[in-house]
Amino acid sequence: MADLMVGGALLSGFVNALFDRMASQEVLDFFRGRKLVPKLLKKLETVLLSANVLLNDAEEKQLRDPNVKKWLGELKEVLYEADHVMDKINTEALRVKLEKGESGSEACKCLNFIPTSFSLFDNALKSELEEILGTLKDLLNQTEFLGLKKVEQKRPSYVLDAPLIEEDDCYGRKDDKEAILELLLCDDVGGHKISVIPIVGMGGIGKTTLAQLVYNDSKVQEHFELKAWVTVSDDFDILRITKIIFERVTSRKCEVEDLFQLQNELKKALTGKKFLFVHDDVWNEKYELWDLLKSSFESGAHGSKIIVTTRSKNVALKMGNVRTYDLQLLSDDDGWQLFAKHVFNNIGCSIPSDLQEIGKQIVKKCKGLPLAVKSMAGLLRSMVNPEEWRRILRSDIWELQGQGTHSTNIVPALWLSYQFLPPHLKRCFTYFSIFPKDYEFNESEKENMIFIWMAEGLLKPQEGRRLEDVGEEYLNAFILRSFFQCRCDRPILFMHDLMHDLAMHVSGEFCCINNGSRNDLNKLTAQTHHLSYRKDFKDIIEYDGLSKAKYLRSLLALPFEYNYESYGLIITPKALHKLLLRARCLRALSLSESSITELPKTIGRLKHLRYLNVSGTKIEEIPGSVCMLYNLQTLLLSHCKRLTQLPVDISKLINLRHLNIRGTYLKEMPPQMYKMTSLQTLSDFVLSENNGFRIKELGELRQLHGSLCISGLENVKDVGDVLESNLKEKKHLSELILRWMGESDDSVNERVVLNALQPHVNLKGLEIYGYGGTILPSWVGHPSYCNLVRVSLEEFANCCLLPSFKHLGSLKVLRFEGMVGFLTIQDEICCASSAEPFQLLEEIALWEMNTWKWSFISGSKPEGDIFPCLKKIDLFGCKELNVGLPTGCFPSLKEVTITGCDEMVSVFPSISDIDAAYPSLETLLIYPCLRVESFSEKGLWPPSLKALAIIGCNLLMANRMNWNLQALSSLVTLYFDGYSHGGYEDVVDSFPEKGLLPTTLRDLRIIGFKNLKALNGKGFQHLTSFEKLSLHNCDQLQCLPIECLPHTLKSLDISECALLSPRCQRGIGEHWPNIQHIPLIRIDCKEI
């Protein structure tokens, strides 16, 4: 780990990587017996050594001297060229090796042969190397005039790493939060209907953090009906911003591209509703753009608010209509608390006095900037040598102040944190500049980021470790140094905009982001080596726009993760063909979810390509030329739904480490998969009708990690083949999916096969689908699988006995579906644990389960077991189940959904203390259950219930006066739906009956009441918070209450009520005088 901590210049990382490649055994063997190229490589090494000693000085001086920055850029360009030459050598050596008939992983180790006729190749290299040497010598001749000299890089002392991510404490912001909350919760701020509250301060001062604090506050959650957060950044794209807000407030994808139409739709969605919008990081100073954007907000309810965070007071003056809130710097005391939290928490309360004194001086140097304080803490937390702290305190970099435009305004503390990164981490850091600001890195995005680093050769191999693990260590090093922040509500990493500015600064023109405009392509230059674009880019990409970047090494569609949406980036076949012909330097290419339908054969010319992602496209085949990409490490084809086969020679890709074919419709695997021994992840292995024996090929793939799905198991005939797959020894697999796709004609064989498929005990996820055996093997549910987090068993036609999963101590999700033959649970299990069962279980789903009781999770206690973490129960089609919920204590249960359980007569078990059993239950949804008559025998309710939906339960509705809804002091949403389920025929005139609804109700929806003719006004009079009434598909409904509806009502929605709708028309309907006070009225989806 020590190597991760040593500072050094960015380009030193490039130089060191070149040295490693020149000295590699592959290069030495390839040029054995020849002198010309090795002699030039030796000269190159000497010149690079001369340049390398100057890099520390140059990197520090580039902030003050633009000539030095330009010099570094030119040097970086030459190093890229040298790296490309070395990659040519390695690629040619590997090609010759394979064409001589040798294959397998041995080809990746050493090339023990002496080539005899390489004159053409050597001559081409000679020309390129001589040009590189000439350029390098010219650059070295300039160093004296630039004043560059050798600067020693000292090695700091370090202790063991602290935890990677800690909960962020916001010191010194309590008063700020209360002040903003006061503005938000007051409905009359300055007499404005919609108040715009600007929060202004310098970058890194905590504007976004403060906005997040109030945005997520519980009082704010209750006060506003709609909320939306938009990161505006420097691109004030009104269409994009409006789309984001519309999608947030309506929870649906927006396909509208016309701004006028979209603004009208948003206006309708906001009508009469109190909203809170946050416009974060605004740079636009043109009032006319803001005026156009806000025009669609005016329909919102009085008291709506907009928070604007910006670094510019001009922006605040243009957008705000209340007093600007100037966010101040932290006091030294608050800064010290923040600093100490992140530096000394791994030491405890005892802080060394010498470090405390220096630390307080460093905090003063940060001048109250929270991000700078936290960044410095990330740098110093693992140093214990006071002299190192003093050296950082004395560094003249502190005196550098950012000058010029926004893009070059680097905070000294952030620059210093960057300076102390080791060279190989600096190379990785510059790559973050290809991601947009506020880009969210979930697990999938982080994994792909590491794949890209690997493709670019940024990961330094370490003996005995996978490159992927090295990449994860690098990423964790950035997290430790606070280069990333963590979302408080979910495990997502993001980079603060100042850190992103720093990455953009150090990468210069080498990295470029296309933010959705064709004009961005005009920014490309010959120095552009890395280009990313957003998948929602709606323009057509022509090659002319890319042609300037003739040394392009990566072209990436973002986000990496498949989003189940058709973005449809249009890249013409001609443009793609030219790109593949001319972009000879490409190492990473992602066209994920683009419009391409064919991958040209010319893809095989990209000899240096290591990462290829065409997932989510409509391609029907992968050309055989892909098999000539000997350097390819990652091939992502997930959700290519028209893809049915892979190239027959794919086993030639001996360097392939990751193959993702999840969501494709492959008929079978290509031959000789067993040769692909470098594979680290293989998402799926498909067995065809006559090739079930090929399952044994998995035995040779010993390094598999992550998720593996084996489908077509009905085609396996010989259990010996299964045993050779050796799943039990694949300790790095985290998820195993086993799928039988046809009807079983040999249940005994299927049990034998499943028994032989026993995985390693490290497994975290297990899914078995279509199993035709009558019982499961003993390993399924065995306590030794204590790491299992998720278990899903689906479509077991014959299984009559299931194991108990009570003793799987890590289990969080348990799903049974289609157990039509199920009879009972295996109560006894070997090595049974004495621990309480299901202590971590969060979700249980039972679909089409042939069971009449909850024996599979109910324990021996008469009062039931305690399920401390269970949050969700989902029941569907459990025809024999008598009582919806089991006996027990469920302190965390929030949501219950019950559908089609026709024998169920009661939802809750017969218990006296229902409050204690379900203290957190908020949502109860009951879909057609023919025999259910009551929620509980004693008429008791969980007091925390907020939302209740009853759909097609006729007997339950007939018993509604015994529900005792008045006991529900938290219920705000009530949903009745009889449409297509008998229409609740017994409800005729008087609904809702007086006293039926709880006083707390805000939202009532009445749907499909077949014979309902009038609403009972007395049923509404006691509602003090009633805001929304929806009436749908009530054919006989004619009358609203003679008495006026509650004055608190804000929304009335009527649709497909043929007799009522005419009576409610604006100005002419006989009910209009009784409803005209309601701010928002819709009739048949049209606002009146």
From TrEMBL:
Pfam families: LRR_8, LRR_R13L1-DRL21, NB-ARC, Rx_N, WHD_DRP. PANTHER family: DISEASE RESISTANCE PROTEIN RGA3, PLANT BROAD-SPECTRUM MILDEW RESISTANCE PROTEIN RPW8. GO terms for biological process: defense response; response to other organism. This is NB-ARC domain, LRR domain containing protein. Signal peptide: none annotated. Keywords: ATP-binding, Leucine-rich repeat, Nucleotide-binding, Plant defense, Repeat. Residues 11-100 form the Disease resistance N-terminal domain. Residues 174-346 form the NB-ARC domain. It comes from Trema orientale (Charcoal tree). The lineage of its organism: Eukaryota, Viridiplantae, Streptophyta, Embryophyta, Tracheophyta.
